[in-house]
Design goal:
heterotrimer, B: about 110 residues, Cytochrome Bc1 Complex, Chain D, domain 2, about 0% strand, globular, C: about 280 residues, mainly beta, Immunoglobulin-like, 9-stranded mixed β-sheet, 6-stranded antiparallel β-sheet, 4 helices, 15 strands
Chain lengths: ~450, ~110, ~280
Amino acid sequence: MSVNSKPFQSRLGVSRRQVLKGLGAASSLPLIGGFAAPAFATGSDGRVVVIGGGFGGATAAKYLKRANPNLSVTLVEPARTFYTCPFSNLFLGGLREMSKIAHGYDELRDRYGVEVVHTMAQDIDPDGHSVSLANGDTLHYDKLVLSPGIDIRWNALEGYDEAAAELAPHAWKAGPQTELLKRQIEDMDDGGTFVLVAPENPFRCPPGPYERASMVAHYLAQHKPSSKVLILDAKDNFSKQGLFTGGWEQLYGDSIEWVGLSGDGRVTRVDAENLEVETEFGTVHRADVLNVVPPQKAGWIAERAGVTDASGWVPVKPESFESQQVADIYVVGDASVAAPMPKSGFCANAQAKVAAAAIVAALRGDSTPEPYWSNTCYSLIGPEYGISVAGVYRIQDGVIAEVEGSGGLSPSDASAEIRQMEAEYAVGWYNAICQDTWGTEA
Amino acid sequence: MNVRLPRAATAAIAASLLLGATQQALADDYDLQREVMAGGCANCHGTDGARAGNVPPLAGRDADYLEERLLAFKRNEVADTTIMNRIAKGFSDDELASLAEHFANVEQE
Amino acid sequence: MPHPVHQLTLSRRRLLRTSAGGLLGLGLLGAAPGLLFSPTALASDAWQRLDAAQQVIGDATPESNGLSLDLPHVSEDGSAVALTVGVEADLDDDYVESIHLFASGNPNPEIAVFHLTPLAGKPEVSTRVRLNETQQVVAVARSAEGRVWATSREVRITVSGCLMRGDDVQESLSNPRVSVPDSFSAGRPGEFRTLITHPMETGLREGDDGETLPRHIIERFTVSVDGDTAFEAELHQSVSANPYLRFHLAPQASGEAVFEWHDDTGDSARETRELNVS
């Protein structure tokens, strides 16, 4: 599978950019033979609806339009401002304002011609190829992309329901929950304990809880230095574990304690009123601030669409991310089962590009392009201490697999300069991926 | 048989032929397979590799230079590399050459 | 814990699934290859191809309904895959005598054998197992009256680059933990959980010096109530480090439960708990 064909300039000398902008506004196209070249009928090559305006959905919408401006692409996203989970931990650590993790949809509308509808998708009729919206409208599609992220599995931990999340936030969807948790941390007395309950696999953002612990420890070291962070984990191994443990020792001494599964770290019951949790073997821990990262599942619209399986996640065909269960529905991002790709914003963006290409090809009657994915997860242990894990993925023997010899972790013995460079590149990555996804500059 | 068409009809036919040509050019302008292969690069280098930041831009740079650089990353020959060696090892030498060519010639938005 | 397989109503969108690969489920799925629960995924005949399982089955014809084996479809870490196995069939006066687990793709396929007694009440056991690679996990159960069940599940292991193993050396057989219900209704099963620190060294791993680390595992775990053996587990090296066991007992009267772990060096650990039966 070699990739050889060169792109060539259009014979008319009309760049793609000009044509993209010209859609829907004939005036900006050059006159040809005395006639204004007509604006192409929107949707003449097919109608695609995208549900979810996060890393997966926004990227899918943009890349569909990039590949074929003749598609009608409608993005359904209730929020007018999207707050990214990536870098929300930096807000908790006092390193970033919420406004700097906020992204809007104007670029997608204005530059790419995506129709953005700010309402909630409520139901899907896969046979009728339509989506019902909360505003009463119905959208018809040739292809549907779902990127609904995660939903919390309420009561998977005894006592952790929606009401409990207002007292012991998860902050695993960025926005009000993140701000709530930040206020609680700020209000905590010095000497208090921040308890973080970490779930078993799979869950959104494998290194996330440990970056959060790092960022909270950083904030506490600055403002409430007698305080502690306790992580109660349902796992014995976590993402970048050796790097985190080493970094914690270097930066925070013993103020972060991690209890793993085999050390009775698995929490089975939450008492949000009293900020107490109980473990498998009956140990009760009392918190001054309690952050529960609970078991998760695909965003609920996926179940409505009939694409989820017994695990609550969405199995997909690796070459296209089309649902294995329902035709013409493509599911990308955290909701999909794409292991060994982790559930990350980077992966959502990568999967969206593959799905968009598959859709463009399918609507043209072409064969599906060979997929490529990569992922880089940056974690900030401290403001100048960054670590990363990378992966490059291809299809091998019909399943997604890491390319042998590629990817891997930051070195365990890296210098302070390298740690600082990685912290800076993390910011560079964040800015670039947000520009790539929403077209916004943070 | 020679048929003389009214001027308007001739122009309309010419316009629709031109339409067809433009539409075809659109599709060919965007190399879907190569865009998929290069997709991951945008996450740090920006869409079309065109973003300037602490992560360097790629768009419009010399293809030979980009190819040499990618191969050097793959062979662990670049000092102070943080991530690019781990990424470059995920591609064959031919794929890296193709990526270099892609970004050298990419049409920026 | 792995999510149990639910019964779903048949509709245009949904799949009919039964637990333990019931015949109806297999028939439906035969018409729909490529779905998650394809015949390959269930592969009930994996136990037919595994000698160790065949030895347990003997001449009997195993029932396919009634034995449930819950495992995640995909596990990003093969070192500790959560597993729950249980018999859900009507037993009347019969009782499940043994449950055998095998990892068909591991160097040594035996995972564990659980010996149950009428005191179990609910023949369901959970543990955490090591799976070398993507493979079929096989379960065989036998009842006292000679009924046999067999089933298997495929687990895909993708060792994610995200995960890095912690290699803390802790004292073997330390920190035994036992969780028992505060009280029991006589004859009604209650859930027990146990955990103990132990490397469960397989004997296949190389240490830093290149030498093979010797096998060092807990071989036997027993629970007795007032002196009578109530539950016993034979463990092999495919049980994960720091063995975790969850099982059920239905004591008839209050008494003392004794929990013992024996490893292959002859060392042991012991815990006792009072069972409060009302």
